[in-house]
Amino acid sequence: MGYIIEVEGLTKKFKDFTAVNSINLKIKEGEIFGFLGPNGAGKTTTISMLTTLLTPTSGKARIGGYDLHTDGVMIRNIIGVVPQNFALFPELTASENLAYIGKLYGLTDKEIRERSERLLKTVDLYDAKDRIAGIFSGGMKQRLSLAASIISHPQILFMDEPTTGLDPQSRIAMRELTRQLNKEGMTIIYTTHDMDEADKICDRISIMDKGRIIAEGTSAHLKEMISTSHVVEVEIEQCPPGLAQELKKLPFIRSVDCEAGLININVDRKAGVFYHLSDFFHRRNLKVEEIRFKEHTLEDVFIQLTNSNLRD
What we know:
The chain has 312 residues and is an alpha/beta fold. Helix content is 34%, strand content 29%. It folds into two domains: 3-224, 3-Layer(aba) Sandwich (Rossmann fold), CATH 3.40.50; 228-295, 2-Layer Sandwich (Alpha-Beta Plaits), CATH 3.30.70. It has eleven helices and 14 strands. The longest helix is centred in the middle third of the chain and has 16 residues, at 168-183.
C-alpha cells in the first residue's frame, strides 16, 4: 500500500505567529488518518494547506501524486472537504445544494440526479431533499455537507471536526458513514479534539500541539508509549489502614493509591496479577467487589505528552 499524501517540512506562519511548524507525515492510501489535538493545535491550518485553501509559508507536499505548490487544480479534482462549519447555501434545498456542487465539478444533469438521489438516501436525507438547508438541524447539515463533499467521487476526503456540537445520535451516524466510505476505498483525513472518537475511528493518529506533531502511530502504539506498566483497579468494601504498605511488598507492584473503596495498583506485568491479588485479599478476609485492569486511554497519552495546562 503506497502513500497518498506525503508532507515534508510544511510550515504556515501568520506574521510572527507560527500556526504549523515544519511538520512531516505520510498517509497511506485507504486508511483513516486522524489529527488529534486541542483547539489551536494547528489541525485546521494543516488541513487548509493540504486542501489548497491556504498557501504554505514553506515546505512541500504531494497529494495523490500532485505537487501542492504547482498542481492545485488537479488536487482539488481528487479531494472532498467536510468543513467544521456549514458552508453550503442555507437558502437552497438539499437537492439544489448538491446540484450546484455537481455543476461546479462538471457533472451532467443525469449524473447529478443519479448521484444526488443515491447520496441523499445514504445520509438519510432523501425525505428532506426539497427542504431548505437553513432549517436543518446540526446533524442534518453535517450529513448534507458530507453528501456534497463526495458527489464527485473523491479519492481523499478531509473531515475537519465533523461531529463538533452534534448530539450523540448524530455523532454516531457521522462515524458510521465515515467508516462506510472508507470501506469503499476512500482515504479519509479526520481532525478532531475528541480523543474517544479518534480512538474508535482512526487507523493511525497524529497528535498535534502548538503547531507540531508530537507523536504518531496506531492508538495501541500511542498508549504503549506513555508507560511500560499497567494499572489494576480494585473495588473493595473497605480499605483498612496499612493496606497500601502491605500491597507494596508484593514483588510485581510499583505503586499503590487507596481512596475510599477504590485501590489503584501500578504493576509491571499482567501475568498472574489477578491470582496473586485475589489470594492477598482472601488471606486478609477483605471483601473485594471487582478486580480489573484499567487500560490507558488516548487522553492519558495526550495529557502526559502535552501536560494538562488549559489552552486558549
